[in-house]
Amino acid sequence: QVQLVESGGGLVQAGGSLRLSCAASGMTFSTKTMNWYRQTPGNQRELVATITSGGSTNYADSVKGRFTISRDNAKNTVYLQMNSLKPEDTAVYYCKAYSPGVTGFYWGQGIQVTVSS
């Protein structure tokens, strides 16, 4: 059974940092492309960051230079280091796993990040 479990969210002041983790099980993690998305009430999920199985990364313009996605295949975990947080980063953050060219993907349950001004 595939599971993605996010952790590390919470409340932080503007300018602060948080590191989100997403632990995967039930899949061949090292072959997956991993994404972090975020969603605010009434809005669609926004793609924040991507890391491929080969370690290539990509970021939304809104987080470039502040967020860093990384992965540890030995721990089946993907991370999102978030620095210089802004109130507009407040959202529920989700991780997603998929294999390019293969039907199907998996979502975590989401974790709240709140940045106070």
Describe this structure in words.
- There is one protein chain.
- This protein is mainly beta.
- Helix content is 0%, strand content 53%.
- The protein is built from no helices and 11 strands.
- The chain has strands at residues 3-7, 10-13, 18-25, 33-39, 46-51, 57-59, 67-72, 77-82, 91-98, 105-107, 111-116.
Give the structure's gist in a few sentences:
The protein has 117 residues and is mainly beta. The chain is built from no helices and 11 strands.
The proportion of residues forming helix, as a percent range, comes to under 10%
Total beta-strand segments: 11
Distance between the termini: 40 Å
Q: Specify Rg, calculated over alpha carbons.
A: 14 Å
Percent of sequence in beta strands: over 45%
- What is the overall pLDDT average? 97
> How can the largest sheet be summarized?
7 strands, mixed
Number of helices: 0
What is the element layout, followed by pairings?
Elements: E1 3-7, E2 10-13, E3 18-25, E4 33-39, E5 46-51, E6 57-59, E7 67-72, E8 77-82, E9 91-98, E10 105-107, E11 111-116
Parallel strand pairs: 2-11
Antiparallel strand pairs: 1-3, 3-8, 4-5, 4-9, 5-6, 7-8, 9-10, 9-11
Features:
117 residues; mainly beta; 7-stranded mixed beta sheet; 4-stranded antiparallel beta sheet; 11 strands; 0% helix
